[in-house]
Amino acid sequence: MLLLTAEEVAELRDLLTSQSGFRIASIDVDFDAFDFARTGASLVDRAVAYSMPNGDRLVGIGTAWSTSSTGAGRFTRIKAKLRDMGRPDLKAFVGYSFHRDGPYSDLWEGYPAAEAFLPRIGIEQSGDRTRLTVIVPKGDEPGPTLDLLASMRHPEWVPVADLGDHSIESRPSVTEWAKIVGDAVEAIKRGDLDKVVLARSVIVRSSEPVEILKVFRELVRLYPQSYNFAWKSGDAVFMGASPELIAQVEGARICSNPLAGSAARGEGEEDDRLIGERLLASGKDREEHALVVDDLAKRLSPLTVALDVPQAPILKAMVTVQHLSTVIEGVLVDGVGILDVIDAVHPTPAVGGVDREAAVRYISAAEEIDRGWYTGGVGWINGAGDGAICIALRCGLIRGDTTHLYAGAGIVADSKPEAELQETRLKLKPLMDLLTAN
């Protein structure tokens, strides 16, 4: 069955042909945004599917406008280019790397230091309303885009396929990573820094190509409380189910939800409760969490006229892990938007460390992997300064039959390498389970 009726396509055509220059047309539709993603993503070089814990879903395929930037000031330059379009209402997708100069390996080809784009066809699903928007850049004709829309059909439901045999490789090796953690603990005890987040990667090679959109469907179903994302660039997809909101801005209101300090979920309700109580009482985890919250509050303070920072964390329970969580809320200074916030706070101590500059230097010297967009961010923004961006966690980069998964742990003076290794295994679990199920 076709996704759009002939009448809906005709309505879009009439709206677009009545305009000149940068043309935009929107209509209400009655299909799921991710059905559209599963149908259309394979037809274009760039596509994004994004869901938020409140149930909102955003999808974009194709490119009507894009910009990228690298180095210091990358977010400021993207903000200026988006503002110069003169359409503050349009939502663009944004993604960026952990390091300001971007990924350095060929593995991350197609994922620059920071990128924003307006999709040629976008879907926004919120509550009971789903809105489709077509954007045709100046100088382009709407015909090809409308023909593509007219040909798209509802996808058939099929289970995630058995991906066959798998090989799994840790980079660095588990033994080597534990040594790196031990070295970091000694550096912290010497006073070189207070905290550093160290990451590792697991490479999963399957005997069959990964069924990307089916895996993403299951990720969304199993982890609805997460910020789920799948960002296609060329032949690769960056996918994840992040628990952590770095910033959400609506008008003058700012919200951030830092997480630091983690433990497993229990086998039953009572076991789960006891593990959570131990996490709340853990001096090591409370210290790690406080470093993150204090740093965020310090960096947000100059951007806000009011800032509410709770005195103590609460538990945030995800499917496989529970975290210490603090919800920070405030009111922004006039003219400050979400990219100004990201520019000020990234990388937070939840993914970098304290002192920030010392931690980033330590990460660059100690880690044996290219983080790329892992511990960067993915979300949406608009020219008015609104947006919602999650830290890119619980994620992996998929190319064909090979997936590079990423996880990290915050290291402080009391950290134990074996415990930190176990924490990364819990964080790898969401995608690992889906990729290796057979």
Describe the structure.
- The protein has 438 residues and is of the alpha+beta class.
- It has 2 domains: 6-151, no CATH class; 166-436, Anthranilate synthase.
- The protein is 32% helix and 33% strand.
- The strands form 3 sheets. Strands 1, 2, 3, 7, 8, 9, 10, 11, 12, 20, 23 and 24 form a 12-stranded antiparallel beta sheet that branches.
- Helix 5 (174-190) packs antiparallel against helix 11.
- It is globular, with a radius of gyration of 22 Å.
- The protein starts with 5 loop residues before the first helix and ends with a helix.
- The model has no long low-confidence stretch (mean pLDDT 94).
How large a portion of the residues is in β-strands, by DSSP E? 25-35%
From the alpha carbons, calculate the radius of gyration and give it in angstroms: 22 Å
Report on the biggest sheet. Answer: 12 strands, antiparallel
Instruction: Kindly report the CATH topology of the largest domain.
Output: Anthranilate synthase
Number of domains: 2
Give the full name of the CATH homologous superfamily of the largest domain: Anthranilate synthase
- Per DSSP E runs of 2 or more residues, the count of β-strands stands at 24
